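In the current project phase, the collection of sequences with tokenised folds has grown. A representative record is quoted in full directly below:
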Amino acid sequence: MSDSDSSDGELGDMFALPKEYSPPPPEPTFEVFTRTCQDKHPQEIKLRLVGSHPLWGHYLWNAAKVFANWMDNHPEHSLGKSVLELGAGAALPSFVAAINGASKVIITDYPDNDLIANIQYNAEHVTPQQTKDGTVVVQGYLWGSNTRPLLAHLNPAMSDASSGSPSTQDTVQPKQLFDTIILSDLLFNHSQHRSMLKTCKETLKPGTGRVFVFFTHHRPWLADADNKFFEIAAAPVIEHPEGDESSDDERDPGGFGFKVEKVLEEKMTPMFLEDPGSEEVRATVHGYIMWLE
């Protein structure tokens, strides 16, 4: 081709992409999870993952796999229980809880259309009957925000009050709280630790309810920042006197009064082999249980 036929010639930018063009997002992928308990049905759970997402919803994380198998070995935390998952992603632990006989499963993640639509797709394909009859519910939710929409699934009177006056909405208090709350691989969100804990404290049934926190230190050099979550969770609650005019910077925020116990440590293959930091640390899934007395 001569120089006159180049991009400077008569055809110019005919085949150039417009400035506002953005490539289509990657297509969704699928991953099949095989349960290690041989007596469980179905043995395989096929999940769709979003093609790509800034909130990391396009992976099925090691913590979710380990916790799903842990739940199969501890069915007492699913059977007949009300379950809430925060930051669910592909929502594998929630579906295992539903399959194992949970009475209600509320699956939540950041209220992003792609994330929520993908979870809804999985719900309709993995637990179709329970999704149809309302046992499994998918909902967008921001950590730390108003928990009444979550609790309304367990307390129909709260849903009825939502159509009334603001004063009526505030006076209808929840009678039922969640038995099981799932946090799977969320602790890397350091700025959101208090928001997660606020939601857990407001929605967990005291005494018998349990929060399950399974995670990996994906960035080993930030392991202390990940573990800060448990320090805040276990620190005592500080009640500030009415009329206290000190600023937020001056006021000790205190903690949330949870009891914390480590229950598991399991080695997997690291999610990203090429990442920096100790491979052993990045391969290890840690499991904790928290509760309120």
